[in-house]
Amino acid sequence: MALRSIDLTGTDTFGIDDDPDKGTDAATKFEFRRLTPALEGWVRDKATSFTEGVDGDAEGHFEPNKACLAMMLVALTGWANLLDAKGNPIAFSTKKMNIAGRNLEVPDQKAIDCLQLDWIRELHEKVSNVNQVEDEEVKRSGS
User: DSSP assignment of 77-129, as one string?
Assistant: First the structure.
């Protein structure tokens, strides 16, 4: 079978597994853009950093939460049915930002601050697996 390119068209929508309204029209849905290799690389690079250790050698640091937050910044394009603590809808707000040479409309800090860290981690995993799942589906289909 020949290699297949990443499908960058359209968006993907995911929910949170613990959403009490999961499977209904009232469930919260998060919409994501597909990531180019440059954007995915930018996100992955956020997971590690290096500092100079006491002996002068470089010390590597693994920072997975930074990568999860970076994923939300470059991939999240909107949401539906996200409510505040009082049950009021929260509007999705954005700003313009240049990331990895691309001018993007990204969630602003107010939008990111609405998300619980557990949701961010779960959504990061789902978005990261989009192209892997497609590859597995192609293998099963025999295409």
Answer: EEEES-B-TTSPBPPP-EEEEEETTEEEEEE-HHHHTTS-HHHHHHHHHHHHT
24 pLDDT higher than 90? yes
Closest Cα to residue 70, out of 30, 119, 106? 106
pLDDT band at 4 (very low <50, low <70, confident <90, very high): confident
Phi, psi of 133 (to 5 degrees): -65, -45
Over residues 123-131, the mean pLDDT reads 85
26 residue type, one letter: A
pTM for the structure as a whole: 0.81
Rounded to an integer, what distance in angstroms lies between the CA atom of residue 117 and that of residue 69? 9
Contact 32, 80 (CB under 8 A): no
Contacts of range 109-112, beta carbons closer than 8 Å, 24 or more positions apart:
111/76, 112/69, 112/72, 112/73
What residue ranges do the domains of the chain occupy? 28-138
Q: What pLDDT is recorded for position 47?
A: 86
